[in-house]
C-alpha cells in the first residue's frame, strides 16, 4: 500500500504544502489561512500529515481538530537538541522557532559544511552553522513588510501607499524612501550577518535563502546573491529530514 505524506509549513500569514510519495513530490503550493483549504488538501488522500508550525498553541489546536475530524494521523515537528548532525545552541531548545531549526537541518544536510541560512518572511531570520554542524547563533529582525508597517503605525507624518518598490536607490518621495529604505535595511542586515558569520566560522560559508522576500533580496544582492542557494521549500526539506530521523 502506498503512503502519501502531506507536509505543511504553517506560517504566520500563509500555509505552504506539498504531497509526497516517498521521495517523489506529487504536488505543492501556497494557500491562504483557510480551514476550508486545509480540508480540501486532506481530500487528496494523505495517509499521514507532518507539520511545522510557528503559530500559537491555540491556533495549532484548530489544525489538530481538523486532522482528528478527518481521521488522518499527524505529527508536529519540534526544535531538538540535535538532529542530522546539527546541534542546537539554545539552552532552552523549546524557545527556538521550529522553522529556524528545520531550515538549518535542511541546509546542513544538503551541503555537509558551514552554512548561513536566511529565511526572509514575516521576520528575517539569519542563522550560522559551523562545518561540524554546531549552531553558532543567529539574528531575528522584522521583515520588510513589518518594517514598513511599524513606520505607518508609530509615526505621525510618514504616510505612504502604492505598490512595493524593490530598489536600493535613494527615494525621492515618501513612498520611495520607505520602500527602498526597508530593502536597504534587509539587505544590509544580511550582508553584515555574512561578515560576522565568516569571522565566527573562520572561513566562507554556503548561503541558503528561503521565504517570500528571498527573490527580491537575491536580485538586490547582485553578483553575490547569484551564488546563494535559493530553496523555496527549505522548511519542508528540513521537516522531511527531521521526521525521517525521528
From TrEMBL:
The keyword Nucleotide-binding applies. K(+) binds at residue 119. A monovalent cation. Ammonium or potassium. Substrate binds at residues 90, 97-100, 174. GO terms for molecular function: pantothenate kinase activity. The keyword Nucleotide-binding applies. Its EC number is 2.7.1.33. It comes from the Bacteria. Its cofactor is NH4(+); K(+). Pathway: Cofactor biosynthesis; coenzyme A biosynthesis; CoA from (R)-pantothenate: step 1/5. It is an enzyme of class 2 (transferase). It is found in: Cytoplasm. The active site is at 99 (proton acceptor). Keywords: ATP-binding, Coenzyme A biosynthesis, Cytoplasm, Kinase, Metal-binding, Nucleotide-binding, Potassium, Transferase. Its main location: cytoplasm. InterPro entries: ATPase_NBD, Type_III_PanK. ATP binds at residues 9-16, 122. Gene3D superfamilies: 3.30.420.40. It catalyses: (R)-pantothenate + ATP = (R)-4'-phosphopantothenate + ADP + H(+). Homodimer. Catalyzes the phosphorylation of pantothenate (Pan), the first step in CoA biosynthesis. Belongs to the type III pantothenate kinase family. NCBIfam families: baf. This is Type III pantothenate kinase. It comes from Zhongshania guokunii. The gene is coaX.
